[in-house]
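quick one if you have a minute, typing this from the bus. below you get a single protein, a line of residues and a line of whole numbers that encode the local backbone shape. could you go over both lines and see whether the tokens make sense for that sequence. anything you notice is useful, everything is just below.
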Amino acid sequence: MKVPFLSIVIPAYNEEARLLPSLQKIQDYLAGCDYDYELIVVSDGSSDRTAAAARSWCPVGFPLSVIDRKENRGKGYTVREGFERARGRYVLFSDADLSTPIEEVEKLLPFFPEGYDMVIGSRSLRESRILVHQPPHRELMGKIFNRLVRTLTVGGLSDTQCGFKCFSQPAVRKVFPLCRIDGFAFDVEILYLARKLGLRIKEVPIRWIDSPRSTINPLGDSIRMFRDVLQVRLNDWKGKYRNKER
């Protein structure tokens, strides 16, 4: 089979209602692209019809793969599972609600020929356009979390949590087999490992629209994310990443 230029991985948990409009937008966008592509939807133990809805939507001939895992393991695990399946020269993961419109990938791809290994969307750069903001308490918690992340793990990046990140296939093969964090802080682990491996990361301003149906629990998930950030440093201190590299 021909290797796609771009693989798009969509992690999804109980996204039956929001997923189909997003898939249609992705198909409409890709139809105008002059490269080969594939789309991979990974259902993270959804209790609704997320996987079945994706399969029933799929037009004849459209390169869609659906992974329907029955056990809920977390977003980090789900993204890794999709990336293991992805064959593209470049691999993008995007949230199922398309808070970052799919066409923003055009801002990421041009940096790979310049020698970057990972190109990540950012909501925090001066040129970024936030069309619909998060509620004030979530924006504040996000700023606090990013400050902690910059202090403890990956300094120099203004937004580690934007769900719109693209990787070269060699970067995928180097970083993702090392990952251990299954929850929302998996982004931090990916970026930490990329820095540890000497990969080049580019942060790019994007358009972003808050989704009112976020499944994030502001307090509980923030505590878990902070715990996982500490776990990244602990894993490195214990030599777990170093051992897996060998």
